[in-house]
Amino acid sequence: MADVKRIERPLSPHLTIYRPQMTSVSSIMVRITGIALIPITAIVVWWLLAAATSETAFAFIDGLMRSWLGDLFLIAASWAAYYHMLGRLRHVIWDFGYGLEINVALKLGAGMFIGATVLTILTALIV
């Protein structure tokens, strides 16, 4: 057989080859917020356990959560929870076969960012 010169190409697509799209960015963000909700849940459980165990333990975590750092953490946690919820809702819509057109998928992705931000601001104003 004749020697065939092969061009060195990547074996699979890589992030440096393709530019990010709204659907891929929103999907990655759903995964990131899902992982971020794990330590957020642990801190809520810590707060509840401290409330159930002793007054000094509760005073420590409650003081931490009522500080400016705690407020910032709770706002970020709210945004992550709302974003993750909207991402799961988007997948339920897709599972029913709706919103699979490219323009609708782009609007749903943008709507997740906007919706999570609006819901977080409403939560911060109400609470």
TrEMBL record:
Matches recorded under Gene3D superfamilies: Fumarate reductase/succinate dehydrogenase, transmembrane subunit
GO cellular component, as recorded: membrane
Main location group: membrane
SUPFAM superfamilies: Fumarate reductase respiratory complex transmembrane subunits (SSF81343)
Keywords: Heme, Iron, Membrane, Metal-binding, Transmembrane, Transmembrane helix
GO biological process: tricarboxylic acid cycle
Single Gene Ontology MF annotation: electron transfer activity
InterPro entries for this protein: SQR/QFR_C/D, Succ_DH_cytb556, SuccDH_FuR_B_TM-su
Binding site for heme: 84
Compartmental location: Membrane
Pfam families per UniProt: Sdh_cyt
Transmembrane segments: 28-52, 64-83, 104-126
Name this polypeptide is given: Succinate dehydrogenase cytochrome b556 subunit
Protein's gene: sdhC
